[in-house]
Amino acid sequence: MKRKGISPLVAVIMLIAFTLIVGGILFGWVSQFARTQRSAVQRCTNARVILQSGIYDHASKNLTLVIYNYGDVDLTFVPILQYIGTENVTVKTDDIIYSEAGSIVTYTIQNVNPNLEEVTIQSVDCQPPCYKCPGAQDVLLSDNIRGL
What we know:
Helix content: 25-40%
Strand content: 35-45%
CATH topology of the largest domain: Immunoglobulin-like
Order of helices and strands: HEEEEEEEEE
Number of strands: 9
CATH class of the largest domain: Mainly Beta
Structural class: alpha+beta
CATH architecture of the largest domain: Sandwich
Distance between the termini: 98 Å
Number of domains: 2
C-alpha cells in the first residue's frame, strides 16, 4: 500500500515561501512603526515652555499663571501645585491648559492655598488635534509668585 502526500522538496519550498511572506509583512509593519515613532520624537524635541510669572490674589485665592509656549508644537498642560506645611503635599489639579505653538497663555487656578511652595506645569498626552509630547515642563517657585 502506497501512502500519498507531498514530497519533501515541495514541503521545503512551501515552508520557505511561507517564511518569506511572513517576513515581508513584518518588515512592512516594523518600517511603518519606526517611521511614525521617529516622526513623533522629532516633533517633540521642539516642545518648549516657560512659566513666565504667577500672581496670587489673597482675597479670591486665585493664582494666575502666564505660560509661554515658545516651541514649534501645540501642547496641553496640567498644573501641579506643591504645598509646604507639616508635610509636603503635591496636588495635581484637574485643570487642563491648552497652548498653541508660539503663544502666550494666561490661566487662572481657583481656590489655591497660600502655603504654596511651587507650581509646575507639565505637558501631558492629549486627544487630537493636539500633539502628544509629554514631558515639557517648567517650575515657578513661591519666591517668584507675586502676592505670596
